[in-house]
Write a structure and sequence with these properties.
Blueprint: H1 4-15, H2 18-51, H3 55-65, H4 76-93, H5 100-104, H6 108-131, H7 136-147, H8 151-160, H9 168-195, H10 200-210, H11 214-224, H12 226-241, H13 243-258, H14 266-280, H15 285-309, H16 312-315, H17 321-345
Helix pairs in contact: 2-3, 2-4, 2-15, 3-15, 4-8, 4-14, 4-15, 6-7, 6-17, 7-8, 7-9, 7-17, 8-9, 8-13, 9-10, 9-11, 9-17, 10-11, 10-12, 10-17, 11-12
Length: about 350
């Protein structure tokens, strides 16, 4: 006679309804790929903590080493789920990181300057992309990642653009390029701005207005002084605050051109709703820290999955023009910021 628990367990699938069985089948299909991407993300975060390098860069490189699993039946669906759905969840949660009070401390002129630099860099990115024989979408992707917040902006803009306008290899190339430029800028820019004779407040503004990723902005700013670090952080937050506006514009423009359904992607709506909630409803600091960590980890998992989906051969198939384009976008933003600082801040 069989044991009661084994009889109950054996009969469980038969007693489940069709929706429950489909749910279990879906979880089983995603499991292996999600575990792989999460493991890569955890390893990348560990390396980033111990070697002071961006976790997203580690996630890309390690993920590419597992490209051979991309087409495997056990992992393919889970990898795609991480690269798309978890990406959108991570982007939506970024809304809880933004506060109006922080960026308001900059004053009017620097705020106008940041907005102008962002718009000019986006336009310059599109123009440079067309000169390089690339699409307008690729120009918005590279220009937006340089103008706003590096890899996070690249992932967010890529999530809004319809698939037919952009290749996954373009996204990965942009993430690699903008991360490399941001890391280099973290080392070079503080020395450059000091050489130009800028004071700590001005250096902080320049760092916040020109370096791509938030982590590198904080590192570069506080390497100069606490004042520079505070101003750099505030300025960077202002750039990040402009992300939903850019996402809205890109979504509307390209959805019309693509003939898609009207309305905004759910994660853009969620981003805006969470940003409003963050600024008008008092939330526990522990909750905000948890959401911030969760959002960043989801983005690292998504980039890990995108790394798995792309091989190095495919990544550099278009050549080095993409990386050169990102470098030129970076120099274009830097040049504009230096002119603005000399005219309005000194």
């Amino acid at each position: 006679m069989a044991k009661p628990d084994r009889i109950a367990g054996a009969g469980l699938p038969q007693r489940l309804g069709p929706w429950s069985r489909r749910g279990l089948d879906w979880v089983e299909a995603q499991r292996a790929g999600v575990i792989l991407a999460t493991t890569i993300a955890l390893a990348s975060s560990f390396l980033a903590d111990h070697y002071a390098a961006p976790a997203m860069l580690f996630a890309l490189l390690i993920g590419m080493a597992f490209n051979f699993t991309n087409d495997a039946p056990r992992t393919a669906e889970g990898i795609s789920f991480c690269a798309r759905t978890l990406l959108r969840c991570g982007v939506a949660l970024l809304g809880l990181r933004l506060t109006f009070a922080d960026v308001s401390q900059l004053g009017v002129t620097p705020i106008i300057g940041v907005v102008g630099l962002l718009v000019s860099t986006l336009i310059g990115g599109v123009i440079l992309a067309r000169l390089f024989g690339r699409s307008t979408a690729f120009g918005l992707l590279t220009g937006g990642s340089v103008a706003i917040c590096g890899a996070s902006a690249a992932m967010a803009i890529a999530a809004v653009l319809p698939k037919r306008f952009l290749q996954e290899e373009d996204v990965l190339l942009t993430v690699v390029g903008v991360t490399a430029m941001s890391t280099l800028a973290m080392i070079v820019y503080p020395v450059l701005f000091r050489y130009l004779g800028l004071a700590d407040v001005e250096i902080g503004y320049m760092i916040g207005a020109t370096i791509h990723d938030v982590a590198q902005v904080v590192g570069a700013g506080y390497s100069v002084s606490e004042t520079a670090g505070d101003i750099a952080t505030f300025t960077k937050l202002l750039r990040v605050a402009l992300l939903p506006i850019v996402l809205l514009a890109v979504a509307v423009i390209f959805r019309k051109e693509a003939g898609g359904a009207k309305g905004l992607p759910w994660f853009v709506v969620a981003f805006i709703a969470l940003m409003i909630l963050r600024n008008f409803v008092p939330l526990p600091e522990a909750l905000l820290n948890f959401v911030n960590d969760t959002s960043r980890f989801l983005l690292v998992v998504a980039i890990s999955a995108l790394g798995v989906k792309t091989s190095l051969q495919k990544l550099f198939a278009p050549g080095l023009k993409g990386l050169l384009l990102i470098a030129m976008d970076t120099l274009w933003l830097l040049g504009q910021a230096i002119v603005f600082a000399h005219v309005f801040l000194m």
